[in-house]
Write a structure and sequence with these properties.
The protein is mainly α. The chain is built from five helices and no strands.
């Protein structure tokens, strides 16, 4: 039981840590030599590209958290993978609700949070069956 709880918390912690590191690196690359008055102009020009980068970072964070959780848990890998994805999707839903994102961003993010954990759980179960045979 403690192993399962540890797996969930470790998966979520590492994915958030990964997201923070990726966002810090992106911020360094984008805003290193930009003055404060030009940030508004740059964000208005590159806002859609910025949202696509956020989607990619969330996919990477979800994938890593699901892989870590599924490999640490002994039984019910798919169920714990989905549970970790559900916890991660609560954060995503709060992000979508409290921030004014365009509709296309909201439509893309919600299925990612519910489809990716199930598919990663299936992938890990398949890989473990192949390795053990």
């Amino acid at each position: 039981m403690f192993r399962n709880i540890l797996a969930i918390f470790l998966g979520i912690f590492i994915s958030y840590l990964e997201l923070i590191i990726l966002f810090i690196e992106m911020r360094k690359k984008l805003y290193l030599n930009i003055e404060l008055k030009n940030i508004k102009i740059i964000l208005s020009e590159y806002f859609n590209k910025f949202l696509l980068i956020i989607i990619i970072y969330y996919i990477i964070g979800l994938f890593s958290s699901e892989i870590i959780t599924a490999f640490i848990v002994k039984k019910a890998k798919k169920a714990y993978s989905i549970l970790t994805g559900f916890i991660f999707s609560i954060n995503t839903l709060l992000l979508i609700i409290f921030n004014p994102f365009p509709l296309w961003f909201k439509i893309i993010m919600i299925p990612i949070c519910f489809v990716l954990p199930y598919s990663v759980g299936n992938l890990v179960e398949f890989l473990i069956k192949k390795i053990n045979i």
